[in-house]
Amino acid sequence: MPAPLHHQQPQQWPAQQPPPPQSWPGQAPPMPPPMTPRHLPPMAPPQPPPVNWGPPPGPPPGWGPAPMPYPPLPRQKSKGPLVAALVVGFLVLGVATIGIVAANSSSKKPSDSANAGYDSYTYTPEPTTTTTTTTTASTTSSSTRTTSTSTPKAGPKAVIALGDNPIHAAGLGAFNIGGCPLPAMEYSPAGQDRFLRASLPCIEAMWKPSFERANLPYQPVELVMVTSQITNTCGSVGPDRTAMYCDGTIYWTPNHYANEQGSANPNHPGKYLGQLAHEYGHHVQWLSGILRASGQAQYEKGGWDTPEGLDLNRRKELQATCFGGMTLAPLSHGAVPADVISVALTDAGNRGDYPIYPNRDHGAPERNAAWVNHGFKNNETSACNTWVASAADVS
Predict the structure, then answer these.
(1) Strand pairing class (244-246; 127-135)
(2) What angle do CA 294, 200, 231 make, to 5 degrees?
(3) Which pLDDT score is estimated for 85?
(4) Count of H-run helices and E-run strands, the chain
(5) 372 with 349: CB under 8 angstroms?
(6) Distance CA 126, CA 152 (A)
(7) Counting Cβ atoms within 10 Å, is residue 265 exposed (0-12), middle (13-18) or buried (19+)?
(8) CB 249 within 8 A of CB 322
(9) Run of H or E including 212
């Protein structure tokens, strides 16, 4: 039985890149709140949620070099050497004191873990050429020199916001593409890797135009196949867990998905495409600044496992599910077979938090079904703004 999708809080952040827009699917009028679909059969236990985190301990105590002892002064009849020795002593004492003050002032400060892992988006400045001309009464000389300016050009920046994030503006969604040639599906790790890597360029081409229109930074997502226990900046992930998104990378667990059995989630290409679409939904959140904003909000509420923190986590996961439905919309226009789209939508509706689960952090299966279909039918980011939805719609 399917397990819920998983995303952990990141610790380091993106940059930018291309593909061109194509025809934008017709806009649908604003839709009412997502419909409530039927209840579906139960699934496997959920994966453990992200570990609670917060700012690291405070700074270490100040430190500095110990004062240097003075050597005994030699007996001299003249006072000149004595005065010189005293001057040297005061100089040594001054240097030692300055060292102590400097060392204490440069003690490490605790990093803000709620803000960790996100780079600002600026372009590297290009060299500029400056020409100077000097003139005297007898000669005129001209010289040319090349210097690098220290002022970077302004580039797209992520916006650390939730409901009012620019990615929710009107007219943004997954754009149509001409086609998406996918290889025959093989369920070995190597076969899944080929299928997913062939799917990603199609997904990138559909989403990049919206980032350009919203003036948000963009970069392609990375894909890592996890066949043994690994550690990344978000923690650790093993091959028996569902896929994880972290810091611009999808960590895919091929053995877990190949071993899922049952009528609710058969081994079908649609399951893999649907799961990939959800994880890419987290990439959309990461690039736009939503993941950072949600992490800050959870921290301010006392952690992800408080009632308010779990509500925020459900909104985050259900939005990724809705974005996943949007990803499937252009592909349903003939780019991939219809049964692949159908299974992808059904699989998303079979995942989520069943009543027996202790932590309701991904939303109930019927909520996942409602949001994936809402994104698929509307294909507009504003329709996936779970941050302004009612509590019942993200239960």
Answers:
(1) unpaired
(2) 55
(3) 47
(4) 8, 8
(5) yes
(6) 8
(7) buried
(8) no
(9) helix 189-213
pLDDT-flagged residues of the chain (< 70): 1-153
Residues 56-88 have pLDDT tens digits of 333 332 222 333 333 333 344 444 544 444 444
Take residue 155 and report the two structure tokens written for it: 């580039």
Q: How far, in Å, CA of 149 to CA of 260, rounded?
A: 56
Residues paired with residue 245 on neighbouring β-strands, in sequence order? 7, 250
Please report, for residues 32, 129, 214, 289, 381, the alpha-carbon distance to residue 171 in angstroms, rounded to integers and kept in the order given. 18, 41, 10, 19, 8
* Joined tokens for residue 213: 């229109």
**For residues 245 and 278, what is the distance between their CA atoms, to the nearest angstrom?**
10
Q: What angle do CA 340, 345, 349 make, to 5 degrees?
A: 145
**Torsion angle of alpha carbons 342, 34, 242, 115, nearest 10°?**
140
Total length of the chain: 395
d(CA 6, CA 256): 13
Collapsing DSSP to helix, strand or coil, 131 comes out as strand
Is the pTM for the entire model greater than 0.70? no
132: left (phi over 0), alpha (psi -120 to 50) or beta: beta
Contact predicate 233/117, CB 8 Å? yes
